[in-house]
Each structure stands twice: as structure tokens, then as C-alpha cells.
Amino acid sequence: MQNKLHFINHRWQASASGATLDVLDPSDGEVFATLARGNAPDVDAAVHAARACFDGPWQAIDAAARGRLLMALSRRVGECTDELAALEQRDCGKPIKQARADAVALARYFEFYAGACDKLHGQTIPYQNGYSVLTWREPHGVTGHVVPWNYPMQIFGRSVGGALAAGNVCVVKPAEDACLSLLRVAELMAEVGFPPGSINLVTGYGHEAGDALVRHPGIDHISFTGSPRVGTLVQQLAAERHCPVTLELGGKSPQVVFDDADLDAAIAVIVNAIVQNSGQTCSAGSRLLVQRGVYPQLLQRLGAAFEALRAGPAADDLDLGPLIRASQLQRVQSMLGQAQADGITTAAQGQVVAHAPASGFYQAPVLLRDVPVQHRLAQEEVFGPVLVAMPFDTEDDAVQMANATAFGLVAGVWTENGARQFRLAKRLRCGQVFVNNYGAGGGVELPFGGVGASGHGREKGFEALLGFTQLKTVAIRHN
Ligand code: NAD
Predict the structure, then answer these.
(1) Considering the entire predicted model, what is its pTM?
(2) Which of 111, 176, 248, 459 is labelled catalytic?
């Protein structure tokens, strides 16, 4: 049994209270590790370490040197891909190909932000004679990062990578279900030369360690990725002390398929967009809007694809692993139960392999058809492998239905009509639109974030760096 501690000021530290919490393997439901259960005193120690670093050794590391540190980290993460993937597989129940993809993306985030450090600069502004006016992009200082369990490495990479590149230091509260890979990454950061206090991880529950982090007056900026419910709480608390917040919340993202779409190209992508990570993806393509002419054919072909899908233990590296925990499985099953009670038709379903332990958290992928636009299954995030399909008639109907949820994270459009591609891209209310693809391979360069209940602010890409800085205008009178 491994007993994991907080990582504060480059030292492993138990919680001030001595409390711990259990870590379960989602593939069999067994406890295999414990974590320190952090609370306000542990967060306070981490924030003080971060502040001392920011005011001290961090100031001696200029932008190019920060870039070299991040590049060294990228290389070290790359060397540890197998180790990190194995940790993630056990901790999160990810099939090994997904866990490896996450570790590769983590290295790529650090590589991207390494190159960006010394390219982030202000401007000079033409002003009245006798003045020189310039702008500086300054770091916030000590940034707080609340990370969810579905893609710990990728979300840590984009959030912490961007914050460090912009000159901040970090205190991170990983999700209680998914800490192990990130604790190892923090150790790698110390190894490649990040100074003590520049990266601190406090593990524990959201309502304890997470709440303490969000309330802490020493946190100058908060990046929160998680549910809309907690995102609202975080924003309310941050507002009380005027702390800037970036919120990356959920989605109910549509894939819109027109009659003229290349179905051969679309089908595998549509399946992957809901099956990847067992549907526990904020940007999952969870609503399928299909023009009526092609609806029967597409559903029949998708049905065949769903029936061939297999869920099973992460080590088997099948199409889907288990869900993260029992409560997540219960949530998905209760939503499916409601669909059944409301008379919604199951068009197709995959299988859980027979040898999957009964104590694991498995859900076979499900395709539901003719789901009414306003039904709960078409409005709320399931956060499981459940795709809801519905037909539409005209382009205007498609736009209206696609925009008919509180969310607005991502959308996919499938059509060969070039003018329609642009019209849809303009009219869909969301942060990213993909035409004849979905996700574009994840691209760390591509700014990501939502509108409405999906949150605000952007992560990923160069754009994220702007959010991790504040702008100072300097006007110098010289005559
Ligand atoms: P969650 O909101 O319950 O937890 C997210 C994080 O917040 C965890 O670290 C948790 O410990 C912490 N937390 C919980 N309560 C808190 C509180 N009161 N104060 C401070 N922190 C608290 O969400 P989850 O179940 O971990 O993740 C699933 C949700 O996250 C889904 O809705 C999903 O769409 C969303 N998500 C969004 C993105 C994105 O980039 N938009 C990415 C991943 C997940």
C-alpha cells in the first residue's frame, strides 16, 4: 500500500491533521493507496511556500530560463511516459492507450509553453507628444489550480504550464480520485530544477482542501476545471475578494451531420468523441443532430459500431475502461433509467466483458434515438458513454437545436458544403467549432474554453498566457 503525502516546498508532508483518504482502483474497486487529506493549514503552508518563492528565487529566473526549465521538464516527462501512464491506468481506470496519450500530451504542453515564455510581451502605444507609453504583461503571482479527475495530466499541463510560462508560481489541488501521476510530475519538476515553492500540491477533498485554496487571500488567480455547480461556488468565493477566475466547466456538445456529409469519415469520429475516456470528457460529443434524409442510415451504421464496443479492466486496453467511481456509475445508470421510464428508445448498446470484476465501475456504451431536445438526457451532462441522437430538417433547425442548452463548449459540423461550414461555424454558440473532424487531435496550441454554463476564459495555446497575466500601462513624460 502506497501512502502519498502533500508536495509542499519540494518536501513530502503529511496533513497537519494527520488525516488520510483511500485511493480506489476503478477496475476492481479495491483500495491500493492512501492520500494525505489536506485542509486549510496545509493549503496555508503551500501558499506561504509559493509566495516566498515568487518574491525570492523565482525573480532571479528570467523568461528564457523559465523556458529552459519547462523544456527540461517536457523531456523528463517524455522519458517517464510509461511510468506516468501506468500510474494513471490504475488510479483513473484509463485503458493504457488513453493513459499514454495523456502523458504524451503533458510533455507536449510543457514543450509548447517552454517555447512561449520569452515571446510574451507588451506593446508601445503612440500617444501625445512628450509621452512614451508601453504595456507590460505581468504575472498574477501565486496561482491556484483546481484540477478534476478525468484528464489529470492534460489539465495540469495546460493550466500549470501556462501559469509558469507567464511567470507565476502554483498551488494545485488535484481531484481526490486522481492524484498519483501529478504527485510524480511535481517530483520531476523538482528534479529538473524548478525552485522549491514554485510548484506545490495539496491533496484532499474539494469541500476541504479545494475550498481552503479558493478562499485563501494569498491566491492571486484561480483556474478551476470541474462541474458547473462547483464552478459557481468558486466564482462566488473569488468575487468576495476580487480574485480573477478562469472557469472550464462542462458541456453537452453537439455533432451536427448534414445529408451531404461524408459518413465514412464521420462514423469513427462520432463514436470516439463519446467513447473516449468512457464519456468522461468535458468536450465529449454527446448530442448527435442528424438531417432527416440520412438519419436512418447513420443510426443503423452507428448502431453496428456501438454493438462492437467493449468495456473492461483498464489493463485489457479495450475501447472503454471503467468509470471513475461508484457514484459516477450510479449517476449514469439513474439517467439511463429515467430515459427508459420516459419511453426513449435504445438504438444500440455495447458490452461489458464477462471477466470484468463485479466490484469495478463498468458501463457499456449506449446509443439513444429520437431524444426530445428538452429532455434531461439532451440537456444535462451524463459524463458517461451515452450518445443521444435526434433528427432535424433544415439548417436553421440544426442551429437552433445545437444552441438549445445552457452549455457552449465545443461543436462538430459534418457537411461538404463550404458556405454552410462557415455559416454554421459563425452561428454555433460555443468556444470551439470543428468542421469535418472533432477535436483536431487535441492540439495544445488551440485555445479552449466555453460560453454560458461551460465557463469563461481560455486555456491552451498562446491565448491562455494572456489570462495568466495582468496588463500594466506605463506612461512616461519626458519633455
Ligand atoms: P467537481 O466540480 O466535483 O470537481 C472538480 C475539482 O473541484 C476537484 O478537484 C474537486 O475536489 C474540486 N472541488 C469540489 N468541490 C469543491 C469546492 N467546494 N471548492 C473547491 N474545489 C472543489 O467535478 P468533477 O466531478 O471532478 O469533474 C467532472 C466535471 O468537470 C464535469 O462537469 C466536466 O464536464 C467538468 N470538466 C470540465 C473540463 C473543461 O475543461 N471544461 C475538463 C474536465 C472536467
Answers:
(1) 0.97
(2) 248
